[in-house]
Model the fold of this input.
Amino acid sequence: MILEEIMKRHSGRAFSNKPVSDEMVTSILEAGRWAPSCSNKQAWNFIVLRDKEVLSEAHEALSGGNAYGKAAPVIIIVAAKEDGGCSAHNLPYFMMDVGLAVENMLLQIVHLGLMGHPIAGWNEAQLKEITGIPKEYRIVTLILIGYEGDISLLDEVDQAKANRPRIRRELSEIVHWEKW
Done:
């Protein structure tokens, strides 16, 4: 009874160099745009990197653990102002809003037969300089997007991660009915 896209989604590491069409990228962005947000603030901004020269510059800003991402033909940087969401309860709602948009995008990516991997681990100042993101914005995540590629081309560490089975904690460990 769970959506197929949810069950098929995984954060793969092996990307093909096959290009992703403009229509696909636009549909991914639309999926993010239609995410719910606190008071409909829509705190997110998406910076799409597809040009080989810009991608090459952005690759230099990735941490060493994300080197596999250099093969992805599309990177979407997701940025938001820390005060861009709701101010209710003194919580950083912009992060939840961005998370909802990213999940919509990830599910659309799977729906299109692509693979998406949201990452942490980059040099924020460097990416802002490359892309012109204003200083008052924070980069929340980067989404690597492309067709799934050959896992055997990854280094040994990334191959092991790519072949690791997807597991989740049991519902009994995380769900509390009526009381904790």
